[in-house]
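pls design
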């Protein structure tokens, strides 16, 4: 049996933890509306990077296992491959993109969002702007610091395929 002198500090520490006075090593979790606002802010930053042609800023917003699934292209897997693909696209085109999310669901440290998009890609070397629109599905993962990063990105054009 513990001496009475040791039980009191232990009980006091337990009481402080139960009342929320303990310091946690985990980042404080936001509520559902804060998570939705954080993902909306994330999307603003992501689109800003796309529309500015800033591959470095775009890459900072994805996790190391990021996978992009695009129509009529091979899977782009991993941060390095995605960063290279984005850099190549920004070298060739000036891109104007917009997203219209219609559903965002947060489940713990993962969230998904679906919606529609429009893209206008103008060749930097000159030529006609290519436009498309379609639908997307994205998966976000909460980073250890509590911020959100994109981990999966899939989109498809509504344009009819050309023979």
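designed seq:
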């Amino acid at each position: 049996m513990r001496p009475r002198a040791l039980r009191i500090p232990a009980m006091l520490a337990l009481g402080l933890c139960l009342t929320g006075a303990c310091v946690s090593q985990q980042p404080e979790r936001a509520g559902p509306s804060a998570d939705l606002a954080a993902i909306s802010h994330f999307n603003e930053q992501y689109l800003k990077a796309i529309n500015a042609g800033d591959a470095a800023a775009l890459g900072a917003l994805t996790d190391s296992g990021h996978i992009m699934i695009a129509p009529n292209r091979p899977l782009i897997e991993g941060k390095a491959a995605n960063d290279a693909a984005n850099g190549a696209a920004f070298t060739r085109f000036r891109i104007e993109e917009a997203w219209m999310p219609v559903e965002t669901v947060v489940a713990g440290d993962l969230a998904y969002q679906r919606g529609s998009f429009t893209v206008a890609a103008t060749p930097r070397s000159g030529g006609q702007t290519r436009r498309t629109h379609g639908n997307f599905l994205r998966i976000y993962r909460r980073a250890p610091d509590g911020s959100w990063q994109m981990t999966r990105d899939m989109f498809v054009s509504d344009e009819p395929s050309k023979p």
